[in-house]
Amino acid sequence: MPYSVLEFQTTPNPHAVKVVVRPSPAPTRPRSYRAPPSHADDPLAAAIMAVPGVIHLLIHDGWITVGKSPSAAWPAVRAGVRGVLESIPEGGP
After folding, report:
1. Quick check: pTM over 0.85?
2. pLDDT of 49-87, one tens digit each?
3. Sheet holding 31-34, edge to edge
4. Which CATH number does 6-87 carry?
């Protein structure tokens, strides 16, 4: 079953958004990733980090915080993240 993106929420950091998703992407433990790749063993993180402009993630219970590079545009990053989440099965590709 693919993830459903319920909403994107702003954060105090202008280069980060909270993505509320169902089902929960972190049923066991929160996990955090930054570029360069530290996500080789996490297919969900690898898929999201492949979105152009994404530079860090925090995957938690029911939500994912996505950080982008200052030069990346939010509309493209949000569309890319939504596309990844809504096209892959729960747990990763």
Report:
1. yes
2. 999 999 999 999 999 999 999 999 999 999 999 999 999
3. 4-10, 16-22, 63-68, 54-60, 31-34
4. 3.30.1370.70
List the alpha helices (DSSP H) in 1-93: 43-49, 74-87
Neighbours of 68 (CB within 10 A): 24
Q: What are the E-state strand segments in 1-93?
A: 4-10, 16-22, 31-34, 54-60, 63-68
Distance CA 45, CA 47 (A): 5
Report domain extents, the chain: 6-87
Give the span between the Cα atoms of 11 and 52, in whole angstroms. Answer: 20
pLDDT at 6 over 60: yes
Residue 67 and residue 13: Cα distance in Å, rounded?
9
Residue 18 φ then ψ, to 5°: -100, 125
